[in-house]
Design goal:
The protein contains 2 helices and 2 strands, in the order βαβα. The radius of gyration is 14 Å and the shape is globular. The protein binds zinc ion (ZN). Zinc ion binds next to helix 2.
Length: about 70
């Protein structure tokens, strides 16, 4: 078991590029975030979003799921 504690500096802001709002919600960084159109600057496997970007992320990813369920592909 490896436990790396590299977070000397605790980042408390949103990981979206250019955003300096307080972070609110963590999401898996990567595909989903990109799909939501968010420019994430996260180094780990998780990214943090502020309220505003979390809303966008939630909306975008939800729409995507719903559309697939409805067979809109
Ligand atoms: Zn943000």
């Amino acid at each position: 078991m490896k436990h790396e504690r590299k977070s000397k500096i605790k980042k408390r802001t949103c990981d979206v590029k250019g955003c300096s709002e307080k972070k609110k919600q963590s999401i898996p960084a990567g595909k989903a975030a990109k799909k939501a159109g968010l420019d994430i600057e996260a180094e780990g496997s998780n990214a943090y979003l502020c309220k505003k970007h979390w809303k966008i992320y939630k909306k975008e990813t939800k729409d995507d799921r719903e559309m697939r369920q409805l067979g809109w592909n």
